[in-house]
Amino acid sequence: MSEVLLTDGAMVTVRQLTAADHDQVVALHKAMPDEDRYLRFFSMSVPPIDIFVTKVLDENAGVGAFDGHVLLGMAAYVVIQGSAPVTADVALVVAHQVQHHGIGTLLLEHLGSLARSHGVQRFTADVLPGNWRMLRVFSDMGLAVSTRPNFDVIKVDIDLVPGEGYLDAVAVRERVAATASLQPLFCPDSVTVIGAGRKPESIGHAVLSNILAGGFTGMVTAVNPHAREVLGVACYPSVSAIPNAPDLAVTCVPAAAVADVAAECGQVGVRALLVISSGLSTNPVQAKRLLDTVRQYGMRMVGPNCLGVVNSEVRLDASFAAGGLSAGEVGVVTQSGGIAIALLEQLRRLGLGVSTLVSTGDKYDVSGNDLLHWWESDIRTKVAVLYLESFGNPRKFSRLARHLARSKPVLAIRAGSTEAGQRAAASHTAATATPAVLREALFRQAGVIAVDRLSELTGTIALLSRQPLPNGNRVAVISNAGGAGVLAADACVQNGLIMPALSERTRGELKKVLPALASVHNPVDTTAVVADEIFNQALQIVLDDDQVDAVIAIAAPTALGDPSSAITAETDKTLIAVRLDQGNVVDWLNGLPCFADPGAAAVALGHAAERATWLRRPAGRVPDLPAVDATAARKVVRDHLATHSHGEWLEPEQVVALLRAFGLPVLGEMFAPDMETAVAAQREFDGPVAMKAVAAGLLHKSRGGGVRLGLAGSAEVRAAFEEFSGRFGPALHGVVVQPMVQPGRELLIGVTSDPTFGPLVVFGLGGVDTDMLDDRTARLVPVTDVDADEMLGAIRSARGVFTSDVDKQLVRDVLLRVARLAELLPEVAELDINPLVVGRDGGIVVDARVRIEPVRYTDPYLRRLR
């Protein structure tokens, strides 16, 4: 069951239909007006729908949209027996009075997700040519739709594979609905503060005071049964006593009273709640009552346990932060009230201010994803800032943030970077997947700029707000203090920037204006004795160099002068300043972002260059891969789970079958349960072989002494088998015998699946180098062709690995196939290919292991509230 928003922001419940819904489903069909009945059944008479409804309900193949207990519409499918691909007839009915609200499209989204979970691959329907509304619903879905005339009807076929077009279409529909639902929360016409006390030290009093001081453009009331007015605002004994129900109610009452207050708000028509009150999350019963009440009445809610909401468009400061309303262009969402307070103050000092600030607190309803939707449509917001301690739906967050980042910078403060939450892992790949690695992969792919400190955040915001993005990452540094220039140069390199050599022309021009002792190489040292106008001339010369994309100008005031006043120029390049005696970490100098520390300037510039690079990056696509038999792969997984209901590591022959189903180059091998079978396998391969022990608990075979290489005859095979028997005893199940492969570069490609983030694909050095060098990179699925290319170049040793002796295209192909495997088979909990041995003309998977776990199907992109 899911609560879902319609296009106008109204809330409905979508759930699977059951036998208990039989009468309502039948009644929905019988209540259809003549025109709707004709378009649906090609007849004006009521057909015998009872049999159809019973079949749908018995097969759990229908979903309904409900307003409370009232069925508004239903969608269902019936599988066509023997169809390949698996195809189902689809039917849709929406009550006539609620059509044109997006219910039909919403039902088809949920029905398609349900059908995919049951293995259905395609919907089909017969539609009358005059039923243009139904044809439009199908075409607007975003799925691949084909139509063709079939006598007097139009045959519609819908491919249920959710491609990029479908996911984009779902996101647009969700954004429209979310924005409409958030309107009374962020832009209300009227607000009431429930629990507005007369004592200045009470939170309710502080919130009401801020609303009034901010100059809220709407009507303000308060609820306090013991007062007629507070701060000159009329008070009422209860929400129901207010003559006109307010759009937004701010609750500052004790935790035990919040659910009752929310119920009263819902009953009188309040459309949104801001729950400042704390203490609910320690009482699960009260917490559930509150959320159930919010859902029952279709309200949106921020909180509980939060600082409040600020929206400068309507001059709403519904918070208890000090300092007053500071309007600006920065949108902020944070789970921490303390972070919100600190960021508000720093932005206020810089004169930047906020467009929207939402402190989500315990995040029962409104989350970071909602704000990404809001800011997409809010032209006042130029920069988005996130402080998220947890992700409810990171895969949806990734798509939303990636779309928003194309038009506005999205910055996130890293939180929880330690490995305290790392789960125990048995494979090299899983050992990589700490929470920090997962989050970094998420941010990197979505184009989110991640920062570690508030000062780093505000410095980057200042740069992005007032300077153009650099065209590249080539930076020149000019200073009147040589040591500071060196520090800046080091910091630039550490932050992914390049310190290019200045052109001969630039060096010549600098020599003409600077003292003889000056350094005209990058970083430029003008010496401390230059006059302000000379420093400015030198700065302009450096900016004019075609080899330079951005400039950091550093000023150290001395008794001889202060060149900081000269740091100004007519340029379209990125220019930032550093003033070494500056008290604030970041400030303004002649309209330029000015830092107190060269390192901080380099960090901010590195982030700007990172954003510019990401914007130039092609969007990428998940490529179609030949020779992929997903059906055969699913059979391997299904057969394994049939005998191992809790899942475990696949047997070697199952691993081979699974990888070969995805077109991966797997080395031939034979499993030998005893010594004589192993000897026979060596003879059949007719050459030196590798022998690997298959023993209970032995995952890292080389480390555990379970590998012998280059066994050239029967005697060596027998000796190795006896050695394994002595070492592993009864735990030895047998051995795997493989032909020896030609030497090559040993690489690791693997997968680990996180229950929240989904599958993570890891690439790096393999073999004995895996743990020793820890040179790896990771991306979350889906992995595009651009992601794959970036991964190949992201490891530290990339330049040394991909020489002419290594088939880079083979590695790329294997990486993409493994990523596709992880995407299509969520039951793959861990996969290690180590090593993948690659030479000049190809490569081979020498060793691999796969762990399977049963999973419950989830659709991360399905429209639904938290």
Automatic annotation (TrEMBL):
It is an enzyme of class 2 (transferase). Residues 12-173 form the N-acetyltransferase domain. GO terms for molecular function: acyltransferase activity. Keywords: Acyltransferase, Transferase. The keyword Metal-binding does not apply. The keyword Transferase applies. Gene3D superfamilies: 3.40.630.30, ATP-grasp fold, A domain (3.30.1490.20), ATP-grasp fold, B domain (3.30.470.20), NAD(P)-binding Rossmann-like Domain (3.40.50.720), Succinyl-CoA synthetase domains (3.40.50.261). Coiled coil: none annotated. Its EC number is 2.3.1.-. This is GNAT family N-acetyltransferase. The lineage of its organism: Bacteria, Bacillati, Actinomycetota, Actinomycetes, Pseudonocardiales.
